[in-house]
Amino acid sequence: MINGVLPEAEAEHDAPAAAIWQREQEALANLPAGLSELPTDTLLLQPVNMVGVSALKGLLATRSEALPLPVTNILYTPENLSLSGPVDDIARSEHGLIMLMGKGGVGKTTMAAAIAVRLADMGFDVHLTTSDPAAHLSTTLNGSLKNLQVSRINPHDETERYRQHVLETKGRDLDEAGKRLLEEDLRSPCTEEIAVFQAFSRVIREAGKRFVVMDTAPTGHTLLLLDATGAYHREIAKNGGVKVIFTTPHDAASGPG
C-alpha cells in the first residue's frame, strides 16, 4: 500500500506541486526489485482529515482524483478585522501585562510588535520584550519608537548574570573546595530555568506601572516555565508544614484568585 500520492491533477497549474509530483513519480518508477515486484495499491493524498464514515468510504472508492475540498462558510474577512478596537479596550486600564502565546509561526511576534506600537503611539509607556529564541523584534519594528522599550530575555545572558550573582553572594565566604562545588551546581540545567524565571518575574512586575507586551516562546514551554517555581514551593510548603505566601509569574498572569 502506497499512501499519500499527490494526484496528477494537482500538479497541472502549480509549479511546486508539479515538482513534488515529478519527484514522487520518479521514486515510484525506481523502486528496489524487492518492492517493485509486490502487488501494489495506491491511495491519493487527500485535502481533508480521514475522519468519519463518509471520508473513509471516499478514500477507499476507486477514483483517479482526490476528494473535493469541503465547502466552508467564511465568518470573518480581512476587512471585518481591526486591531485598533481590542487595543483601545486594553488601553483603558492604562497599564498591564499582555502576553502573546501560541504555536510557533502563528504570528506572535508580529502581533506583539503591532500592539506595542499602537499603545506607544497613544502615548503610553510600553516595554516590548520576548522570551522566544527565534524572535526577530528588531527586524519587525525596524528601529525604536518614542515611549517604547524593546528587550529580549536571552537565556545565555540571564544564566551568566545569575551565576555571577550567586558566586558573588553565596560563594563569597566559601573556601576553594566550596566554590568549586557551587560552580558545579550552577552548571546544572535547572540553573537556566531559574535565571530565565527571575528575568520573567522582573519584567512582569513592571506591568503595575506601565504596559508590558511579552512575545513568548511556544505555549507549553512558557506555561511550564511560569509555574515551575510555584509548583516547587507548594510541594516544599506541603511536606515541610510551613505556611508561606508567594506569587509566581503564572499567578500574576492569571490575575486575582
From TrEMBL:
InterPro entries registered for this protein in UniProt: ArsA/GET3_ATPase-like, ATPase_ArsA/GET3, P-loop_NTPase
Keyword Methyltransferase carried by entry: no
Domain called ArsA/GET3 Anion-transporting ATPase-like: residue spans: 97-235
A molecular function (GO) term: ATP binding
Tree of life domain: Bacteria
Keyword check for Chaperone: no
SUPFAM superfamilies with a match to the protein in the record: P-loop containing nucleoside triphosphate hydrolases (SSF52540)
The protein's name: arsenite-transporting ATPase
